[in-house]
Amino acid sequence: MNRRELAATLSRAGLREYQIQGVHEPDRLPEAFPYLRGEAGRWVVGICERGAYTPIRDFLEEDTACRFFQSLMRHATPPPPPTGILDEEAPGLLARMERWGRAAWAEYRRARRRSGGGGSGPAGPHPGDQR
Questions:
Q1: pLDDT (tens digit per residue) in 60-88
Q2: Torsional sign, CA 100, 102, 103, 107
Q3: Nearest to 46 by CA among 28, 23, 26, 20
Q4: Cα(19)–Cα(114) distance, rounded to whole angstroms?
């Protein structure tokens, strides 16, 4: 297996957040992502986190590195979320979150008034606040 074959396999599996030198870059740079690249005549597999590349393992052969990377990606990918559950709960959950946000802001203003710090809080009201 070479880097292009690996990228095609990962793409078919729906994986996008990884870097394979000269073949695939993430659509957007996530905070952390796995990478495969050539360095000093070897193939290095590692994790890039906030721009810092940390090698996990290196290999002499591209095929071995690609197979290791594929295995890493297959086992590190979380299962998809359950379907349907969140869709049914979302409207009620959003309404509850808005009520909790308004209640939290109201409690914050009351506490500020009690402590003598004024009641306005940080600049501007909470977006869902209705005074």
A1: 999 999 999 999 888 765 655 556 555 55
A2: positive
A3: 20
A4: 54
Helices vs strands, H then E, count in the chain: 3, 4
Across all residues in the chain, what is the average pLDDT? Answer: 80
pLDDT of residue 131: 46
How far apart, in whole angstroms, are the C-alpha atoms of residue 19 and residue 32? Answer: 11
Strand blocks (E) in 19-113: 19-20, 32-39, 42-49, 52-59
In angstroms, the Cα distances linking 68 to 18, 21, 45, 65, 74 are 14, 15, 8, 5, 10
